Fold this protein.
Amino acid sequence: MKIQIVIVSEQSLANLIPALMDRPDKVYLVCSEEMAKRGCEKRLAALLKREAIAVEIKNDVPDVGLKRIHEFALDLVTEINEANPGAEIVLNATGGTKLMAMGFVDMLRGEVNRIIYTDTAHRRIETLPDRKTPATDPEPMRDVLNVPKYLAAQGFRFSSAVSDDPDWREQAAARKAACKYLGRNSSSIQTFIGAINALADKALEKVPGMDEERLRAPRQSFQNKPLGEWAKALAELAKARLIDWRDGEVEIEFADVAAAQFLRGGWLEEYAWHIVKDEQVCDTRMSVKGTWENTQKSGNEFDVLACHGNQLLFIECKTLRFHDGNDSDIAYKVDSLSQDARGLFGETWLLSARTPSDTLCERARQARFELIGPADLPRLRERVQTWKKGRI
């Protein structure tokens, strides 16, 4: 029988990942009073039970007083050995206060088969040596988390993702070439992107009393005859059957609601989704919806989320022109939502099809998320490759 003793912390991933890698028969969650107040053990227990792993919670574990911590640790391992003779016992010493971790390691070194530490930042599991066991190379993390599981560990209940819909994926595949054309050429056709965005918005309207849109006026006109880069872009869109347009005409006709929504700005999310997914990242989802466990937080929708190496990549996409007046709001929203969703690890990117202002660039620098403008969108693949490799 395989058993893990886990010192519960607020960062559920450090507790969860080794359990999902090793698949023990049972996990003992060692929880201090402070962690119990925050409900950390309940969330972790629910995640483990969902994976068919038995759980026993040990509350009111002392987090002060080394003598009391030593006594509790020794009593616990004695209880486990009596109930499960010959069991293989692993202590995950990543969580808890420093004193708790030190106390458990001091008392259980030599009493358990292995003591591990989750190095989430570097995507590996370290094994602590003892007198009998010398130091060994760290174990690389295996991919055990997808986007829904990662979000669940952060307290977010995944409900759906547009990219999970087979019909949507078929539509996305049909317009993939046009999508990548817009992404790779966004720097040279920024004014076109703004113009087609505006026309698509004029073509659409809300269906009264419903959370849906319909085509109000599918035929729209540019102010001037499209030439040069504009004409090339329109030809690509027409080839993908997103619009009906003939060379030399100022009028276009949007094919349907999905085409208009795509050209109003949805293409940038799809571009990010295609690029990440094409790099064979473990799990990539677009337009992710769900609600937070904390009732004070409303439901949210995330543009693109990817999980690889048990870390989350959070991508927010903007196609409208930025103005200094709302730059701070945009930066705050991106930073706040991404930190809630990904926790301490992973990365946050804001993709912009229009050149962002100096103010937004400064806000992004302060908040430590990457701002990827139109000049860098063609090299998004290289950025994904670097993120995928991790920090080692």
Q: What stands out?
A: The first strand starts at residue 2 and ends at 7. The first helix runs from residue 12 to 22.
